[in-house]
Amino acid sequence: MATPLDPHAAIVTHAAGQGAAAEARPNAQGVLLTTADGQPLARALTRSRRRARRQAFLLVLPLLAFVLITFVVPIGQMLQRSAKNPGFSDNMPQVSAWFDENPRGAVPDEAAFAALAADMAAAAEARTVGIVGTRINYELPGTRSLFTSTGRKVARGIEPPHREALLEMDPRWADEELWTAMRNASTPYTSSFYLAALDRTRDSAGDVARVPENRQVYVMLFQRTLWLSLLITGLTFVLGFPVAHLLATLPMRRSNLLMILVLLPFWTSLLVRTTAWIVLLQQQGVVNDALVWLGLIGEQGRLQMIYNQTGTIIAMTHILLPFMILPLYSVMRTINPSYVRAARSLGATSWTAFRRIYFPQTLPGLGAGALLVFILAVGYYITPALVGGSSGQLISNMIAMHMTETLNWSMAAALAALLLAGVLILYWLYDRLVGIDNLKLG
Amino acid sequence: MRCKASGRLHSLAARSRDQETTDRETALTATAGTNGFVVFDHVQKSYDGQTLVVKDLNLSIGKGEFLTMLGPSGSGKTTCLMMLAGFETATHGEIRLDGQPINQVPPHRRGIGMVFQNYALFPHMTVGENLSFPLEVRGMGRAEREARVVRALDMVQMGAFKTRRPAQLSGGQQQRIALARALVFDPKLVLMDEPLGALDKQLREHMQFEIKALHERLGITVVYVTHDQGEALTMSDRIAVFNDGRIQQLATPSELYEAPENSFVAGFIGENNALHGTIERLDGVAALVRLGNGELIDATAVNIRDVGQSTLVSIRPERVEFKPELMPSGAHTVEAEVAEVIYMGDIFRARMRVAGTNDFVMKYRNTLGQVRLSPGQKIRVGWHPQDARALDPV
Lengths: 442, 394
Ligand SMILES: Nc1ncnc2c1ncn2[C@@H]1O[C@H](COP(=O)(O)OP(=O)(O)O)[C@@H](O)[C@H]1O
Ligand SMILES: [Mg+2]
Description:
The structure holds 2 protein chains of 2 kinds.
Chain A: H1 7-23, H2 41-83, H3 93-101, H4 110-126, H5 129-139, H6 144-155, H7 162-169, H8 176-184, H9 192-197, E1 200-202, E2 208-210, H10 218-249, H11 252-267, H12 270-281, H13 286-294, H14 309-332, H15 337-345, H16 350-378, H17 382-387, H18 395-404, H19 409-433
Antiparallel strand pairs in A: 1-2
Chain B: H1 2-14, H2 17-30, E1 38-45, E2 54-61, E3 66-70, H3 77-85, E4 92-97, E5 100-101, E6 112-115, H4 127-136, H5 142-155, H6 171-183, E7 189-193, H7 201-218, E8 221-226, H8 229-235, E9 238-243, E10 246-251, H9 253-258, H10 263-268, E11 273-283, E12 286-291, E13 296-301, E14 310-315, E15 334-343, E16 347-354, E17 357-365, E18 378-381, E19 389-391
Parallel strand pairs in B: 3-8, 3-9, 6-7, 7-8, 13-19
Antiparallel strand pairs in B: 1-2, 1-4, 4-5, 9-10, 11-12, 11-14, 12-13, 14-19, 15-16, 15-18, 16-17
The complex binds adenosine-5'-diphosphate (ADP) and magnesium ion.
Residues 77-78 of chain B line the site of magnesium ion.
C-alpha cells in the first residue's frame, strides 16, 4: 500500500498500528512498563485518571443535582401516577377484598353489597367518598354524584339486606358496568389509564375493548398531532431552507439584518405573536379584508383561517421556523463555496451541484432542525389552544385539560407518557436511519 | 466526444518524449500572438465598480504549456483564474479557449479541470465516488467509469484508497486525489490555485515534481497560481508576474531571474541587491551609474532612456565578486565594509555596507581554501556589467 512515492500512506498505517498496541496491557514486547519511580505504568495511569474523573464529577455535581430534582423526579412521579391511582382501593378496602376473592364475572352477592355499604359508611365518615367517586368517574363518567349521594344516605344508617337497601337508594348500583369499573379500580396499580388513553377499556369479562364510538377521541388526537407535527416540520423546511441559505451566503451586513428578522420572533412574547395571527387571520381580520377589497372573495365568502386546523398550522409553522433555520444556517455557513464550484467545474449543472453536493452536506443541520421542530410541535400547547378552535387541538391540549379542568392527573400522565414513548421511538428510528451523531445543532 | 476523450489519457501517455517536446516547442512559439490556446484579450475586472482588480490583462497561453501566475497576495491571480473557470465574469474584454470566446459559457460546459487550494474533495463521498462524479454527470456508463477511476488513481499512486473518505486521508493524499479528480475527465485545461499551499515543505517539493511529471506525461495545458517564487521557478514553462492587477513580466524562469525587466520583478524574484543612483553616461545599453556616495559603477540599461535619470541598479548576491582576479578587467569596483557573515554550509552569506545601504548581500561558495571574511573588514566588490541591471525605480 505504501509506495515509496507516498510517505503519508506509511505514516497512516504506522499510526493505526500504534493505536492497537497501546490498548494491550503489557506492551507488544511483553515487558511490564513502569514509571520513573518504579510503579507499574498501568496503575499510575489509572490513578491519575481517577483523580481527573473525580474532579470532573465534582464540577458537574450541582447540575446533576438540579437535573435530578427538577427533571428526573417529576417525570418519574408522572410516570408512576399514570399507572397508580389508589383513590378507590385505599378508601374502599372491603369491596376491594371482595373483588380479590371473587373472580371476574362473579355476580355481586349480598356480601359484596355489605362490604360496599360498610366502605361507603367509613368513607363518608372520613370524607373520602368524593375521592372514590372521582376515581370511578374516570372509568365511567357521570358516576361521581352516585357515590356522594349514596354516601350521604348510608351515613344516615342502613339496614340489611344491603343489596335491596342500596338499590332502593339508587337503582344504578345493580349496573354491571359500574361493578366492572369498581373492579378495575380496586387495585392501586392499573393499566386502565393507558387503555383509556388509547380509547380502550376493560369489559366485564376483563378483555380489552374499544370504548363506544362517541367517546373515542385520544387515538384520533394522537394521529392528528403526529400528522400536523410532520406537516409543520415539512413546512418549516420548505420555508426555512432558502432563508438559511441566504443567511449563509449574503454579505455580512445584510445577512446580519436578515438574522435579526429571523430572531425577532424570539424577542416577542409567544402570546403576542399568536394574537398577531388572530388579528391577521380572523374573518374580520387583515387578510380577509384585503382579499375582499381586492375582489378575490365576496363579503359572504370570507375564509375561515383561524380557530381551526389551518390556524394551528400557520401559527405553529411561524413560531417554530427559527428552530429549523438556525441549525441549517450554522451548518450551511461551514460549507465552503468551493465545493459547489468544484462540482460545477467538474461538469455539474447548478441543479446537480446543489442536489448531489450541497444538499447532502446540509443534512446534519436539516436533521437537527427537523428533530427540534418535530419534538417541539408534538408537545405544543399554547398556540393550538389559542388559535386551533376544536379541529386544531392537539394531544397536549387534552393533557392540559386533564391537568387543569378534570383534575384527572393519572389520565394526563398516561397521555404524556404515551407521547414521550412515541417521541422516543421516533428518535430511535431517526438514529437508526440518519444517525444521531450526524446531528449538528449549531 | 466521449470516445475521443477516453483515448487521450492512453495515447498521450504512450506518446514518445521527443515527439512531445517538439509539440510543446511549436506550441510555445505560437503563443507570441493572440491565437494561443487560452487568450485573455484586454480583460478587466472590478468587483465594486470603484477599483480595477485586474487592469487590462493580455495573455496568450499555448497548448501544452505550463504557465504560472506568480505574485503577492491580492494581486489578482485568483480573480484571473476564476474568470477563466467561469466563476467570475470579466467586466470588460474577452477570454477565449481554443479559439472560442467563453465569456458566456457556464462553468460546467467549459471542460476545465480545477484543483482548489483546500482541495474541495466532497466530504460525503468516498475517493472513488469523488472521482466518478465528473464522469457520472457526463452520463458515462458504469464500466467505463470504473476503469477510468482506477486508471486515474493509479496515475497518482493512490489505487489502494478508493473506498476511503477524504477525511481519512492526509493532506498530501488529498492533494493527489484532487489532482486525479481534475484530470479524470480528460480536460483540455487544468487550473490550479495554490494547490500546494497547505502542505509542508518537503511534501510540497515532492508534489511539485509529481505535478510537473504528470503535466509532461499527459501533455495538458496547466495554468498554475502561486505566491511561492521557488515553486514557480521550478515548475513553469513561463511565468507571469502579477502585481497590482497587471502582468509585470511574462517570461521563462531563467529570463525572469536573470533579466528582470523592472524593479518590482527584480525585487520579487529571488534575493536582490538594489542600489540607488543616477545615470552618468549612456552608451547603447552600457550605462555608467553614479551612486549616492559619488562612486561609479557599470550597469546594463534595461528601461532607461536618458542620462541624468534616477535608477535602481539590481545585482544578484551570487554575482557579486570580491576577489580582484575574478572581476572583469576595467570594470568599476566599490568599497564595502563587511557587517556580518553567515555560514550556511554550502555557501557564505555576507551582509555589507555599500554606498550608504546596510543590507548589500554577497554570496560566495564554501570552496577549499576560500577566503574567510570577518565583520569590520574593508574590501572592494565588483561584478560583470551584464549582471547589474539599471532599472526604472518604481
Ligand atoms: N469576491 C470578491 N469581492 C470583492 N473583492 C474581491 C473578491 N475577490 C477578491 N477580491 C479583491 O480582489 C483583489 C484580488 O484578489 P485575488 O484575485 O484573490 O488576489 P490573489 O489571488 O492574487 O491573492 C483583492 O484586493 C481582493 O480583496
Ligand atoms: Mg488567491
